[in-house]
Amino acid sequence: MNRIRGLLGNILLGLLSCILGLGVLEAGARRALSARPPGKSGEQAAYTLFDPVLGWRNKPGASVVYNRREYRTTVEINALGFRDIERTGTPPADRPRVLVLGDSFIEAYGVERDEGLTRRLESIAAEAGCAVDVVNAGVHGYSTDQEALWYLREAEPLGADIVVIAPYYNDLLHNVRERYSGSIKPLVEVREGVLVPVNTPLPEPPSRAPVSAPPAPRAIQGSALKALVVERLLMGAPQWYARLAGFGLVEPYEPDAAPDEIRVYRGRGRNPEIERAWARTAEILGSLANTIRARQARPVMVHVPARFEVSDRAFDLTLLRYGFARDAWDTSRVRTRLSEIAASTGFSFLDLTPALRASASLTKGEPYFPVDGHWNRRGHDAAARSLFSFLRDRSLLACGRMAR
């Protein structure tokens, strides 16, 4: 009898310990969820100005703090209107200048300024004994047309020796659309080889309300611990999540409506708007390459892959998220077509996919923020090292001289 009582006591003690442990974990999970910053809280409005030709540009001298779930960074805009150190309007006499055009991947608001691709490229080159001036001309939300228009209108005084343009897949459809996330943008045509905006000057939008304080965290419904575990499973092992959902152990994932931009990866059928977007993109890049060469510079195109092009796990999650069949997608589609455009227009072409894949590891993680989708510090460093090797190995960049 005493043995039975002792056994029951041990079992009860074990149950109480488990309940207490789960309570502690639940409290910790609630604290973690409550402390999460909002996904977005209007940071970009604090340093964005309306532009009647480009749609918008960065405000010189502006400063804002991004406080998001995966990072907290300070973004300061220099006198040229870019997230960069102060640069002279004319190129330095003692070293070549590289100008990098792009969107938020190049602006790099998810990392501190000196951790972004352009500053890392400058540092890596210096470490190799090859001084170079790398200008960050990235602006959040810009598509290829806006980047090319800015270069045509404003970049000549900068005197770049190499001009790098870094397309991302969502540029494509926006090259034939006059709205980006609700903001009006230019439409362009190429006439006799010259890039011409056809809907400018753009009408100035209504004044925006001042950026308000972040919204209060939403009340947590149900178990916070369960929510964190399910979220981790979904993000980290989407195939296992789908299997468990099939057995009824977790709730089935309700697919989201796929954004139009992502359909450029569909491997089946021909979408007229997407084909028109590819044709327009090729025209824009061809005109840009000609202008770059006319200014005695070398054109380089760098493919910025989406996270699901680099991470198989992210691809599995994308399929689950949008409810697409695996064989309907071709993750190589964008980089293949961009490489064809580069070959036909005279760009030197670099695909960053292999370098970003190689940078991932079990111990140090992936090169992208899982939720935000931009490069983290690891991604920017890998991209910068790949670009430096590319420029050096093709004799586009050499210590002490510039190949033209």
Explain the overall architecture.
- With 404 residues, this protein is α/β, with parallel strands linked by helices.
- It has a domain at 95-203 and 221-393: SGNH hydrolase (Rossmann fold, 3-Layer(aba) Sandwich).
- It is built from 13 helices and 13 strands.
- It has helices at residues 2-34, 104-107, 117-127, 144-154, 171-174, 224-236, 238-246, 272-294, 307-310, 312-322, 333-345, 353-359, 377-393, and strands at 48-51, 55-58, 63-68, 71-76, 97-102, 133-138, 162-165, 179-180, 183-184, 188-191, 194-197, 298-303, 348-351.
- The strands form five sheets. The chain has a five-stranded parallel sheet, with helices on both faces. It has a two-stranded antiparallel ribbon with strand order 1-2. A two-stranded antiparallel ribbon has the order 3-4.
- A hairpin with a 2-residue loop joins strand 10 (188-191) and strand 11.
